[in-house]
Amino acid sequence: MLRSVFLAAAGSSRMERLISSAPVSKGIVRRFVAGTGVDDALRTSRELADDGLAISLDYLGEDTLTAEQATATRDQYLTLLGRLRSAGLTPAAEVSVKLSALGQKVDDRMAFGYAQEICTAAAAAGTTVTLDAEDHTTTDSTLEILAELRKDHPGTGAVLQAYLRRTEGDCRELATTGSRVRLCKGAYAEPESVAYQSALDVDKAYVRCLNILMSGDGYPMIATHDPRLIAIAEDRARWFDRSADECEFQMLYGVRPEEQARLAAAGHTVRVYVPYGDQWYGYLMRRLAERPANVALFGRALASRK
Ligand SMILES: Cc1cc2nc3c(=O)[nH]c(=O)nc-3n(C[C@H](O)[C@H](O)[C@H](O)COP(=O)(O)OP(=O)(O)OC[C@H]3O[C@@H](n4cnc5c(N)ncnc54)[C@H](O)[C@@H]3O)c2cc1C
Predict the structure, then answer these.
(1) Is the pTM of this model over 0.90?
(2) Is pLDDT of 196 > 60?
(3) How far is the CA of 252 from the centre of ligand 1 (A)?
């Protein structure tokens, strides 16, 4: 119930104006977002890299409706990659990109062209790009663009969402040599026709997808904070004899940092997904939708407002 309220709020521009301008939002945003500018992204990346963690940086923004906005997002990524390279933070840090932020819904050829430029800059900086997964109406277009990008940049990562009924098939298609695939549960409000609705069904689908990826030839990136799924993934890594450079765990910045440290200390590659930028509203609403405790944090911040 709460999940659907927050996911509906994620798409409401009225709520966005209200919450983005509320001073109390700042505290909770700081917990999940590295900051607003590229300096914040670099500082956070340095801290995480010093702790032995890998990083995927996300310049916040989605559902871009103008070509100008899409161009500005492309420019942000090019600047970021240049700065990461100069700071010696690649290959520890890669970037995550939402095609909708590059104008996928306006003109998917433009989004492809910009993504290609970002992949080229990432390659020059000695790192990679992963294409985030968004709502199901974009999945076909995103996977098509991924296939095109991989012709020149085979290390470009895919994201598959276990809650989508189609995803087991996509896992089979993508579990090939050199193919980097992030498996997550999925963060959008999706209809029953395309997505499993109960937490149990989503978890079961996640394990089926995990089995396909871990037994395949690609490079699985296990993105979850769920202790049961992490334990199963650790078991599969042992079973399929995958070393630290043959799969990785991924978690979001600000979520279960002690578990990130535990997995890294156990010898696994752990990558932290670090969002930055001032377009944090949709991202924050999806985090609140996931976990009642995060909502309580927000509630406490509102209650203690002077
Ligand atoms: C690196 C990364 C990249 C992602 N990229 C995408 C993407 O491209 N597209 C997309 O749709 N979604 C993406 N997601 C989000 C994902 O789909 C889920 O919405 C999100 O990860 C929550 O699911 P979960 O697997 O952590 O499990 P949940 O069902 O949210 O949580 C399961 C359990 O994990 C534990 N847990 C969760 N959060 C906390 C916390 N804050 N503190 C302590 N314990 C906690 C609790 O025990 C909880 O019961 C990404 C997630 C990660 C980690």
Answers:
(1) yes
(2) yes
(3) 7
